[in-house]
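This week, think about what follows.
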Amino acid sequence: MSVIRQDDLISSVADALQFISYYHPIDFVQGLHEAYLKEENPAAKDAMAQILINSRMCAEGKRPICQDTGIVTVFIKVGMNVQWDATMSVTDMINEGVRRAYNHPDNVLRASILADPAGKRANTKDNTPAVIHYEIVEGDTVDVQVAAKGGGSENKSKMVMLNPSDSIVDWIVKTVPTMGAGWCPPGMLGIGIGGTAEKAAVMAKESLMDPIDIHELRERGPQNRIEELRLEIMDAVNDLGIGAQGLGGLTTILDVKIMDYPTHAASLPVCMIPNCAATRHAHFTLDGSGPAVLTPPSLDEWPDVTFEVGANTRRVNLDDLTPEAVKEWQVGETVLLNGKMLTGRDAAHKRMIEMLNNGEELPVDLKGRFIYYVGPVDPVRDEVVGPAGPTTSTRMDKFTRQILEQTGLLGMIGKSERGPIAIDAIKDNQAVYLMAVGGAAYLVSKAIINAEVLAFPELGMEAIYEFEVKDMPVTVAVDVNGTSVHTTGPAKWQEIIASSKS
């Protein structure tokens, strides 16, 4: 019998969440570097370079890999012989660990959890509560897996009840392109097969706790149907040519994880949950001897990768940019932004739309300006702003036409593709959409030399800021003609991949 002290679980959860906020699992770093070395699309290769550079910077600076520091998910297996030296419930202990981690003064993590999700959606301020999955097992230890899952990838989760005779691979190949690039590929796919609908979903999430090992599997060969499926799905998804950040390329996923469970004879439930380029999870065991000790990886584990600015890179000053100049920008080219931009995402856009509908004057003048879809982490020490990577742009699609037509906004910056309604609005208003790399939040923040809240301060990280930036790298994703790199890039690389195999 072991006795687990209350503060040992609390501090272990807190330490693990801090640890995974700035340390990528080394298996992910190695898998991404291997994909980087093989990548032939320059835009996708540059995106992976930024993710790798950002990863090392975060490990050195102990700051978040991504500004979206996630919703906490915990898988906890409690041994039947365990005794607790505690006054709190296990759930309360875990949530206290989350609370301490996200409010740590040396590395403040963004609180993204909203209570009353169908109503007021009020921020809980400390990222609690966590989503906790319990299992009572034999033994006298407590086994804990902790993950922090970003909203961009979580929102792309898919679930289906297939007929028993249907092809799982066919459903995945059909479904992955519908997910767009908002889940920040390259990452992993977690797949749960069998059980019931909710069991499949939990298995899909839990499978993402495992390390990347698809290459070892390929070398030794599959030994059962699940391993065969992992390889089939891996190859079929990468053959789609979606590529890093959806720009087109050879690698869309780094691994496929599958868990299965017996199911009803009439059923074949399947859930697919992607893990993004900000993969964050840790595993520890408590045996009564004290809190968990997580050993930091050596910085020598990170590859020496640089992001090279090409000779054709366009450097622009946002402060004197004209609509005529924007018309010259070509889809897929890299632009280095300098000068001042505004920020604003879901809550700010909703507030601005309400004001426009009521005939009220906006608190900021958007005419000729660029707006960056971001919710930054609070700064610490001498930072101007904390990690400030882009959020998924499609969430702003429904606001885009009215904002462009009624304010004269010239451009938008965000993550992943835009939908048809936004692209049509961009084309009709001769505006432009630029894409920053999701999963490179700390790297992006280093291009921000000043930050000031201009409007809606009560919205916290969703307030409207004015950022002054120096050489912030972005890609032209939708030009004034409505051409989208997220359409042209994958189509081109899917054809290239198919041709290479014929």
Observations:
- The chain has a mean pLDDT of 96.
- The radius of gyration is 23 Å.
- The chain has 15 helices and 19 strands.
